[in-house]
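Here is a tokenized protein:
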Amino acid sequence: MGDAIRILVADDHPLFREGVIYSLASEADLAVIGQASSGEEALRLAAELLPDVTLLDIGMPGWGGLLTLEKLTAVCPATKVVMVTVYDDEDHLLAAFKAGARGYVLKGVPARDLANIVRSVAAGEPYVSPALAAGMLRELTRTRAHDPLSELSDREREVLSLVAQGLTNREIGERIHIAEKTVKHHMTNILGKLSVRSRVEAALIATRHHAPL
């Protein structure tokens, strides 16, 4: 057992904690060396036992999981922390990684998968639950679009270019031969897609990104 990955399990729910410990105990290369039911206890045990991996519940009592994570990574920088949680939103995920987590796992993960995740994180590979990773990729893909005008239709880009020239809705309608209320409809869509509140802001974005005139 000298080469076994040494694990600390920290969760305030005894049934879940014992279940995790039981599932990992069947793996010859994994050894649970301690368990904690609060953030303060987790930090004390981590400093004393220096585990290779700590499985930490994000909803811990006392300090809470994220504050415990920050303290633990400061005191035991060699210990890799995997957050185990029911929170499947990207805000908690990003907060955990900013605080020093090396893994983010949703409760309910199969025992065999959890064992493999511990091995991967211990080997230096970060881990994020696949469903959350896919959501983050979609979000990052959207936010990395360099041209905020790329989501506009050709007609909306045409309307916006005329707004940038200072034309009113009526003048735009006359210029491109559509009803004024249709222009207003396009403007509503444009403001929503650009996340702005006024045609002035939209015109500034158009000018900045060289909307075709």
Notes: Residues 5-141 form a domain with the Rossmann fold fold (CATH 3.40.50.2300).
